Amino acid sequence: MTAASVQGVAPRGLRGAVGLWTILRRLLRRPEGLIGMVILLVFIVLAIAPQAFVGQLQTAVTATGHRLEPPSGVHLLGTDELGRDMLNQTVHGARISLVIGFLATVVTVAIGVVVGIVAGFVGGWLDAILMRITDFFLVIPTFVLALILTPIIQQLVGSAATEVFGIRMTLIVIVIVIGITSWSSTARIIRSQTLSLRERAFVDRARVIGAGGGHIMRRHILPNVINLIVANAVLTFAGAVLTETTLSFVGLGDPFQPSWGQLLEAARAAGAPGLGAWWYFVPPGAGIVLVVLAFTLVGSALDDLLNPKRGRRR
Amino acid sequence: MKVGYLGRRLASAFVTIVLIALVNFILFRAMPGSPERVLLHGTPRVTAEILQQTRERWGLDKPLFPDQFVAYVDATIHGDLGFSFIGGGHTVAEVLAQRIWPTVILFGLGELVAIVLGLALGAYTGWRRGGPVDYVGNGISLVLYSTPYFLLGMAFLLVFATTLHWFPTFGMMTSGAQYPGLWERLVDFLAHLALPLATVAFGLVGQYAIVMRSSIVETLSEDYVTTGRAMGLREGRILRHHALPNALLPTVSLIAINLGYVVAGAITVEVVFNWPGLGTLAVTALTARDYPVLQGVFLLLSVSVVLANLVADLVYGALDPRVRT
């Protein structure tokens, strides 16, 4: 009963209770937001049902073309070194890249939000320790750490063929590694916002009524940083797609579930740039550039709209 | 006051380096196989004596913490990083030493070109904010920022090496070539350097331009700029003498913080062009699961980035009295 009354007092969404639709409308009114959302919509549709557009993912056995055919009426984007249709590979790659990017974003933001809120709210030595660790991850080249962590965790987890949510274990490990190595900037942003929220009257009121720390963090701090989390998650998505691409490119991806990065790695290994086979790496490359660009545009537009601090970083 | 700032920066860098050593130690013990086997994997002719020596040297008979950690840190400080699994008896330190210079040259020059170009582009687009130059310039920056370095490298390779034959396709020197003199040697090296260097520079330009643009835009709304305008100063003079110096400072520290991310790009560019630096070394080691070398690369790059950040912080503190609180 006390909890419910406190909840009524706490202002939800401090910058005027702005609904989801209002934010979406404001976002679409900005040119960069509109362009970004359109690109994302196209790729999300492709990623949801790639079979509907290009049929099942072609393998070396079910390949429909010859080796490295340039684009033609039959193969709109040409074929790879095993005769697989590049349009087929690229559209299926969209699904893998976006799903891995999404899961990695969820893990990254979850870790960042928990660390940020706990450090900012609890304060003291816990804050000091958590922020030291955060700074450590901010400064060091986390990608190189990911290079070492991925094979070690893959070896510890064991069989690569096990599937979770239809995703092979190799890729799940990549999701976990991206999460472990990229949460630090989220934690910093959430912590600084938590620090200012902690001093607000509604937090004091909740405490006076007898609410515990955990309750206040979940029911009062978290709802008030949701806006920040959304804007940050969209920007994190762009980074996660890039990191996954790069990890796959250096050989940590899964050839049986080729993401765009995995396709680029295959193109490099097959010597596509040296053979003049531009159609092998331009389609997956364009996919990556467009998706990262779209997330960056939408993310920075959202950041402008939702971030209580007007001064932009980056 | 100033000593406090300096001391805090030094302490922070020191703690980070200790954490790097700790992470490296944990990774080393998390590896599959007993630590003796990991340590002696690449060593030729392991005898019982060598095995015993290793156990004592790394404190493997003693408890994990603190004895083994202290021994590990001690070995690291003395440059003893173990043997490469695939290096045929070479130590990790030897393998790393061979690969440092190509990376330093490629990335040192690439960073330099990118900083000059990126800051100039960012300052100009920021100055002309809202105009056509800004839209085009900022658009180019955003696309470059969204492009993975290695993709840019593959495109350059296809256009300038495969199709136009302007530059060689891989390596640092033409293999097996005989040079009549130093000059021909240098020309061959520069021809090999051109494409990877352009890739690194263009890969970085976007992000630096974006940072510089927002910094300039912020600075141009400051009161002293308005005062300058009211005094009748020309726009160009305001930009060069008042806005630029103040906008540069935060940009420099952001560039230093971003160094850690730049390293990821470094690795992939080297792979595309077969540049014999730390990046190709890391990927070869990764493929062979040569963990000691991977850890060596991690240690070397992390400590370099931390030290670079420390230097940037100190320079920043010397230039801008406001941060020395």
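DSSP finds twelve helices and no strands in chain B.
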